[in-house]
């Protein structure tokens, strides 16, 4: 198998498996995606990973765009396509069948139990993603303080995140973060 085909196969296998545990969306599995592409495969650095995530967040479209950017960085256009299909296909099929199951059990006690159980799991996975991204992006004391402050502000107030992004941009321009 050629090196490119090996990389594409690796992307397909890893992202397909991860998609099945993406409770809460792509952001929920970012720590594991980071571990695979940075620590295991060495396809990019933590800083590159954080930049691709930031690019995916500022671009219009779904959060899953980060998967396409990672695939593109690793194996070009073919990598982007394989990564997106692998990351979205299995979870989309699972979601379809889960929804059909949930629809049939409209009044079931089990449906309510499963829904209540999945919420904290999704929140925990997404918080782990934020922690992983912060480790790759926070390279100074100012950046760490800014991350902690922004996280607390978002968690405990109703402040619009755009204001926090503006403050972070100004801190970056000023060289504080």
The main β sheet shows up as:
none
Report the portion of residues in β strands.
under 5%
Using only C-alpha atoms, the radius of gyration works out to 18 Å
What's the average pLDDT?
Answer: 86
Terminal CA distance: 45 Å
> Helix proportion of residues, in percent?
over 70%
- Uncertain segments of ≥5 residues (pLDDT<50)? none
How does the overall form come out from the CA principal axes? flat
- Structural class based on helices, strands and sheet pairing: mainly alpha
The arrangement of helices and strands along the chain is HHHHHHH
How many helix segments?
7
* Total number of beta strands: 0
Structure overview:
The chain has 177 residues and is mostly helical. Helices cover 79% and strands 0% of the residues. It is built from 7 helices and no strands. The N and C termini lie far apart (45 Å). The model has no long low-confidence stretch (mean pLDDT 86).
């Amino acid at each position: 198998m050629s090196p490119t085909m090996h990389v594409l196969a690796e992307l397909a296998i890893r992202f397909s498996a991860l998609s099945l545990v993406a409770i809460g969306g792509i952001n929920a599995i970012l720590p594991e995606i980071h571990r695979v592409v940075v620590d295991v495969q060495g396809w990019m650095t933590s800083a590159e990973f954080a930049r691709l995530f930031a690019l995916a967040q500022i671009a219009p479209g779904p959060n899953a765009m980060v998967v396409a950017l990672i695939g593109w960085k690793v194996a070009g256009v073919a990598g982007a396509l394989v990564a997106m299909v692998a990351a979205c296909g299995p979870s989309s099929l699972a979601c379809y069948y889960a929804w059909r199951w949930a629809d049939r059990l409209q009044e079931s006690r089990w449906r309510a139990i499963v829904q209540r159980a999945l919420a904290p799991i999704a929140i925990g996975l997404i918080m782990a993603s934020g922690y992983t991204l912060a480790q790759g992006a926070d390279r100074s004391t100012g950046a760490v303080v800014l991350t902690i402050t922004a996280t607390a502000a978002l968690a405990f107030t109703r402040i619009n995140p755009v204001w926090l992004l503006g403050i972070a941009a100004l801190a970056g321009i000023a060289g504080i973060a």
